Amino acid sequence: MMDIPLKMPDLATTGATVKVLRWLVAAGTVIRRGDPILEVETDKAVMQVEAAAAGVLKAIVADEGAEVDAGETIAVLEGDDSAASQPSKDSPQVAEAAPPRPTRPAIPEAGGRRSFFARNREARSSGGLAAIALSVPQKVAARRLAESQATVPHFYLQTSADAGPMVARRKAAVGGLAWDAFFVRAAARAIRTFDRMRCRFEDDRLIPAPALAVGVAVDVDGDLFTLSIDEPGRRPLESISREIVDRVERIRAGDAEARIARPASLTISNLGGSGVESFAAIVNPPESAVLAVGKVMPAVTAIDGRVVVQERVNLTLSVDHRVASGKYAAGFLSAIVRELESIGGGD
Fold first, then answer.
1. EC annotation (predicted)?
2. Using an 8 Å Cβ cutoff, are 24 and 60 in contact?
């Protein structure tokens, strides 16, 4: 038998420390390689860390609440890869010689995982509206959005676009298309001309993102997640739509990998499906902007001197004024509108 140190992996958080939120296993637990062992909070999201080796958890080094860097030892296993990586089905999960380390009750995962609404109903069932405990993703979102509202100089631009081409394209698509796919691709293509919108503000400089990605804000059982879609400007709408739908389903099923937030240049926040006509969203740092999308609805408009009823969608662009001026951002928003209105049946 030998001691195997488990180290904090590099979670691609640009060198920032991570905070240990919750251990999912106790001392004495038999661990297989790849088992989720703890939850951590990075500067962008909450995610699970998997075991890089197998064995019996001998000691926890990084307690809950500790802040650690990549490469630091967080726990020690006893065993070796060949002997412990394939324990039998009858192997005990907790060694009798080592008492379990007290931890907070585990949050039930997919299938038994309580939603925000379920927690709310439980609170009300006691005879009155009691305090509602926020989930970890909700706590992270609350902190980050409050910091953004307080520190990022926002300004807002509003316009609308002819949604007729999108409506026709969705009807022509086999199996349908997610509305978000249109706005993700349009924003990515507009950024090709307005490349400041792929930058973040840092130390009085604009730092370009290494790759072009556009985020999609999604609500899953009351928890807010941002899906990062890579290079959507070069991809078919069907491909973007499938990735969005697949990622949402994986999050709903409790897939830890799908919950990981990756860098994006800006985010699409769409409340059209909830009947919202227009709204202004909060920028998600270090991104430079967020595009808020309202519902597609009939609107009276004038075209070539004629009054017609047209399917239109309201768009509101929230921008970090340190990254872009009003005129520059207005040009970017107009480019998004042109992309949306130029979609063809075979596009």
1. 2.3.1.-
2. no
